[in-house]
């Protein structure tokens, strides 16, 4: 059920997000969502954004109800470990959900703006990992200063081996929000000193 919930939310919300960001037109979002939601939005005086929100909510509701029914229909097989498929693969909308995934991949996730953010993310992560790993592997002045940038709760135990220390550093970095990681990257790079 959790997997189905993730699949439902991500696929449907990706359409709404793509529309909100301007990568998916209103007509395309309406077509993608209303094949599931199946509601009349022509008479609404709401903005296109509000219409997409209503379509998103109704589509998610219908898919949750359908996934629940499929789960209950196959509960014995699922609980015994004999059910090997995703719940939504048995949905009346299985093929359409694949189409939604393809459309959002093509128009949102492969859009130049989105790809450039992903590329920048690699740079940010590489810089943070390099700088903090160097605090473990080197004993120069810069490494000592970088170590001081670690919050106290992430300071390393001197008794730990290098692997344990690097693991703690990666745990620290993986827990960062995008904006925090970007700000720290900018500080390390000398872009922002505030």
Describe, in plain words, how this protein is organized in 3D.
The chain is mainly α and 194 residues long. It folds into two domains: 2-110, putative deoxyguanosinetriphosphate triphosphohydrolase like domain (putative deoxyguanosinetriphosphate triphosphohydrolase fold, Orthogonal Bundle); 113-189. Helix content is 71%, strand content 0%. α6 (112-137) crosses α7 (141-148) and α6 packs antiparallel against α8. The radius of gyration is 23 Å and the shape is flat. The model has no long low-confidence stretch (mean pLDDT 90).
Task: Kindly list the characteristics that best describe this protein.
194 residues; mainly alpha; putative deoxyguanosinetriphosphate triphosphohydrolase fold; 2 domains; 9 helices
* Biggest sheet overview: none
Structural class: mainly alpha
Shape estimate: flat
Unreliable sequence segments: none
Count of helix runs: 9
Tally of strands? 0
Radius of gyration: 23 Å
Q: Mean pLDDT, nearest integer?
A: 90
Helix content class: over 70%
Following the backbone from N to C, one meets helices and strands in this order, namely HHHHHHHHH
Distance between the termini: 46 Å
Give me the CATH fold name of the largest domain: putative deoxyguanosinetriphosphate triphosphohydrolase fold
CATH class of the largest domain: Mainly Alpha
CATH H level, superfamily name of the largest domain: putative deoxyguanosinetriphosphate triphosphohydrolase like domain
From the coordinates shown, what is the CATH architecture of the largest domain? Orthogonal Bundle
Strand content: under 5%
């Amino acid at each position: 059920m959790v997997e189905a919930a993730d699949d439902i939310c991500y696929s449907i919300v990706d359409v709404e997000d793509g529309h909100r960001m301007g990568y998916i037109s209103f007509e395309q979002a309406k077509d993608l969502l209303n094949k599931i939601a199946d509601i009349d939005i022509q008479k609404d005086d709401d903005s296109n954004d509000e219409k997409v929100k209503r379509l998103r909510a109704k589509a998610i509701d219908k898919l949750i109800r359908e996934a629940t029914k499929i789960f209950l229909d196959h509960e014995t097989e699922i609980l015994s470990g004999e059910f090997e498929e995703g719940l939504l693969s048995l949905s009346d909308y299985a093929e359409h959900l694949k189409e939604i995934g393809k459309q959002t991949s093509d128009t949102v996730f492969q859009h130049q703006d989105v790809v450039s953010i992903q590329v920048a993310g690699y740079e940010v992560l590489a810089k943070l990992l390099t700088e903090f790993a160097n605090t473990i592997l080197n004993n120069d002045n810069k490494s000592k200063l970088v170590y001081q940038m670690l919050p106290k709760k992430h300071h390393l135990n001197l008794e730990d081996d290098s692997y344990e220390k690097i693991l703690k550093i990666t745990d620290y970095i993986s827990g960062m929000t995008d904006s925090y990681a970007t700000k720290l990257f900018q500080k390390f790079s000398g872009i922002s000193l505030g």
